[in-house]
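Complex 248.
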Amino acid sequence: MSTVQHYHLILTMLPLIKLQNVYKAYMNGQIIQPVLHDISLEINAGEFVAIVGPSGNGKSTLLNLLAGIDKPSQGQVHVCGSALHKLKEEQLSVWRGANIGIVFQFFQLLPSLSLLQNILLPMDFVAKKPRRERLERARYLLELVGLTDQAQQLPSQVSGGQQQRAAIARALANDPQLIVADEPTGNLDAETADTVFELFLKLNQQGKTLVMVTHNETLAESASRRITIHSGRIYDDQIIARSDYVFE
Ligand code: ADP
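Predicted structure with adenosine-5'-diphosphate bound:
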């Protein structure tokens, strides 16, 4: 076995996400507000993790730490082979572009760009693929999420569910191993939420690791693991048997 193969083997055996003794506090004026307390957690490649719990208890903060959107006050955060707690802002933004896809509750598409251009943007930012291949991939991703006919539309010209599906296509642009989502169905009606949620299941079935904060019970029940956060701590961490789930 070559050194590269050996290194690759070791990487695939390591957890995709590892948090060690993570603390996070925000400054609220002059007051220090502790939000996360001593979180240690491992998530392996291929898991579908739902982070649940009451509002204001630190779920989004935790997600932001493992997405490299925010940094811990103390402790270590390793994700996709990088020590995020050691990276500077600019390095973090490059790391995010290349390694993860992020889906937000309010879609966060750029309003002046078409859906197609919104998906091309992260590919242009990372510039891993030649330009012509980027266009091909953007069209493929729009097809994957069922938006081929809406490629040239602006976000404001399509429905909320379609915007969220475009945001998921954008999250897949650079083919990340890990997708994180913060309340991805929080702004959708039940029926539309179902189509988005089926898309997440399909992605997980295809091997993507998913970590999402959700209040949607259907989504949480379909995850392979449910982590409950309460008062900034892991209150419960359960593997869910999904053998009864029938995939197409
Ligand atoms: P949840 O996702 O469980 O609703 P959050 O992680 O959003 O909880 O927030 C937990 C606590 O941290 C809240 O009290 C919130 O006000 C505070 N908080 C979150 N983000 C910030 C921030 N950027 N600056 C200051 N306080 C914050």
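The pocket of adenosine-5'-diphosphate is lined by residues 26, 35, 53, 55-61, 213 (CB under 6 Å).
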